[in-house]
Specification:
Strand order of the largest sheet: 4-3-5
Number of strands: 5
Number of helices: 3
């Protein structure tokens, strides 16, 4: 059986969605691991992909928001248990 795949906004690799983490904007706040409705951005669970997405404005493009990409990357890094800077 085929598993649904998504593209990581950090490294652009296609992976099954259960290997990625979904981020979204909910009530104006950036959230991690939200399986809800609406526009989301998927990332590998690695520090390098979170940093790459923050540096290339991938969050802004994928989520169609004006939130600072660095804030999104820092939030995701915190969720992953990695230092933000």
């Amino acid at each position: 059986m085929l598993r649904p795949t998504r593209t990581c906004v950090g490294c652009r690799a296609r992976r099954p969605n259960d290997e990625l983490v979904r981020t979204a904007i909910v009530d104006g706040d950036f959230t991690v691991d939200t399986r809800g409705n609406g526009r989301g951005a998927w990332l590998c669970r690695t520090e390098s992909c979170a940093r790459a997405a923050g540096n290339t404005k991938a969050f802004s493009r994928a989520l169609r928001t004006k939130l600072a990409d660095g804030v999104c990357a820092d939030t995701l890094l915190g969720w992953l248990g990695k230092p933000a800077h």
